[in-house]
Amino acid sequence: MNTLKLHWTKWLACGALALFALALGGCATPPALPQTAAPATDYLIGAGDTVNIVVWRNPEVSQAVPVRPDGKITTPLVEDLQASGKTSTELARDIEKALAKFIQQPVVTVIVTGFTGTYGEQIRVIGQAAKPQALAYRVDMSLMDVLIAVGGVTEFAAGNRASIIRHVDGKQQKFNVRLNDLIKDGDISANVPMRPGDVLVIPESFF
Questions:
Q1: Assigned CATH class of 121-202
Q2: Which residues contact 118 (CB under 8 A, 6 or more apart)?
Q3: Residue range 4-58, pLDDT digits in tens
């Protein structure tokens, strides 16, 4: 009888430990963000950008124009030309081809003067940021740069439960970041690099 009771007690203890492990696994925080080098990419023009088009020896067709919400631009002699998703060099070559119907051997330079970028290049900040918004990605942009741009976090933010959602090898992954450690404690190790397309999620504290 005592042997049966001992086996029964051991079985209950093992079951309780298994349930506890499952509970811990369900509440586990996302993994820490890996310290990887930023991919080398050229800036892609996006809707909302401003592009300054300079046509050599033809000032009458040179001007600064906005990129419309549909991603296209309109300039003298060139109507509805796709600009979004292209580099400034690619857009310059496309404008040269369009102007070749009216100007002999046009030479075009495109300078981007207002930066928004394509949606895939932007960094979005949602939740308990002082000013949630989408930001144009800049080379070597860090988590601290993003926090400065959005004015920090609100008093209701659970900073150390924040996370970054990022696409890695075509798959969406979630990584834990420590905003409280960075902002309040000055822990520079919590200042991780950002990547184009990242989404920073700042949850609300429960208490």
A1: alpha beta
A2: 44, 45, 46, 47, 84, 85
A3: 444 444 444 444 444 444 444 444 556 666 666 566 678 999 999 999 999 999 9
